[in-house]
Amino acid sequence: MVLDMRPMLRGEVERIAINYMLTPELPMGVTSDSDAHVEGFVTDEAGYMRLSLTATVSYHTECARCLELVGGEFAVTLERTVAAEGTLTEQQLEENVDEYAVIEDGTLDLDETIREELLLSFPMRIFCSEDCPGLCPKCGKPRRLGDCGCPTFEPDPRLAILKTLFDKDEEENQ
After folding, report:
1. In principle, which of 39, 72, 80, 151 could form an S-S bond with 101, CB 3.0–4.6 Å?
2. Phi first, then psi: what are they for 34, rounded to 5°?
3. Cβ atoms within 10 Å of 86's Cβ, excluding its own
4. pLDDT by residue (tens digit) across 27-77?
5. pLDDT value at position 34?
6. How many Å apart are CA 50 and CA 20, to the nearest integer?
């Protein structure tokens, strides 16, 4: 969404409401059935302009431990100081890139900033539950369904030669 900031810059309004849908960019392996809902406002308090908004998106992905389908809603809050073009130096913008939203030609473009914030803030790993036990490394059965019967002890393969020595000793003693 490109927000027309000219009425606020002229002092005609002190608040501009934001409410629209945005097609989000999500991490690989994560899908969404609908667009992200973006809601918020820009306020002007004696020349100090502040952008405050929340983007909410529903998602579907696999649990990082057991691969079960997981769905939910993810929300990210975005707070920025709004500055007119030319009021900040290049150095200020580079050092504080996440603190400012810059008005260019009387408009404020929100889409790319929101997409970037959603992508960077999205959790890297999502679980079906906090205590998800995952999958059995031998047979792949989900551990939450119960014991699969696979042995839980696996000797270190580097020490497997020692097992053959013990087996020989047992054969000789019999």
Report:
1. 80
2. -140, 170
3. 9
4. 999 999 999 999 999 999 887 899 999 999 999 999 999 999 999 999 999
5. 93
6. 19
The DSSP letter of residue 167 is H
3-state class of 25 per DSSP? coil
What lies within 8 Å, CB to CB, of 59 at 6+ separation is: 26, 30, 31, 32, 71, 72, 73, 74
Sheet of strand 36-45: strand arrangement: 15-22, 36-45, 48-62, 69-84, 100-103
Do 32 and 60 meet the contact criterion of CB atoms below 8 Å apart?
A: yes
Q: Output the CA torsion 104→6→2→121 (10° steps).
A: 70
Would the CA dihedral through 100, 104, 110, 112 be positive or negative?
negative
Over residues 93-126, the pLDDT tens digits come to 666 667 888 888 889 899 989 999 999 999 999 9
Please, which residues have CB within 8 angstroms of residue 80's CB and are 6 or more apart in sequence?
50, 51, 98, 99, 100, 101, 113
Lowest mean pLDDT among 2-6, 19-23, 45-49, 129-133: 45-49
**90, 102 contact by CB (below 8 A):** no
Indicate the burial class of 137 (C-beta count within 10 angstroms; 0-12, 13-18, 19 or more).
exposed
